[in-house]
Amino acid sequence: MPLFWRISLFNSVVLIAATALLLGPVTVSTPVLLTEAAILTVGLVVILVANVVLLRIGLGPLRQLARAMTTTDLLRPRVRPEVDGDGEIAELITTFNTMLDRLEAERALSAARTLSAQESERHRVAQELYDEVGQTLAAVLLDLKRVADQAPDEVREQLSQVQETTRASLDEIRRIARRLLPGVLEELGLSSALRSLSDEFTGPSLTVRHDIAAGLPALGDNADLVLYRVAQEGLTNAARHAGARLVQLTLERAGDAVELRVRDDGRGFDGSGDTAEGAGIRGMRERALLIGADLVVGPARGGGTEVRLTVPVGDRAAERVADRVG
Is 288 helix (H, G, I), strand (E, B) or coil? Predict the structure, then answer.
């Protein structure tokens, strides 16, 4: 039955009950007797309560739908609102669920194109750093060495300092290029790439410990890249924003999935509200959606922040990706 007619029916029932009460054997004296006032008050309360209960039952699914609308986040897929009620309400909930499916599919496709473009741009910039800037600085180092060998002693020390500065700049450029284009991931695999990444972030002010299980199942190039980028972003956040001194990176099998955890002892992150998540975390969520993985970013036990990425293995991964892109 349409919502309009159901509400009309509810109110009609209430009005009919009120009319029956007035036309019944109960009469009202002048002045009103206490028993008559009590009967009328009880009747009015019953009518009002009946009206509220009937409307609450009829409009209940709309409240659930409104709650779902205010909490929906396309980067955090969740259970759809249950189709409840009849007529327009059920149709409205079904339409809303269909709209969410379409929006999530469009968001996933858009994110895939964006991330693919980002990786292509990273590859291009890394190659230019290697081929252009890196080779130029290497040539400058050779020229400086040749000039230093022929220079007087008082100039040779200054040239030596310039050589060290140039060599440090070359090392930094190579480090940036490796982060942009993780060649070790393609050459040696995910485990070696994560160990190398941990070593890169380890320094005087930050210690990164890694615990990477052996014999992990193959996940595919896309999943390996997502795991690497999420670990990279987690370590970057710990080093730059959390003020952490120790980070634990773990990769292990968890049932029918592979789980990556990056836990630091920094300032912590409560994850409440959209304002708490920057572009880096939202980028991690978009990457997780592409491979049907679950990403949780929140406070770690004992303080600090934990990034946990759970990647399904095999057929389960394909099913989850298919579900999320419609």
Answer: helix
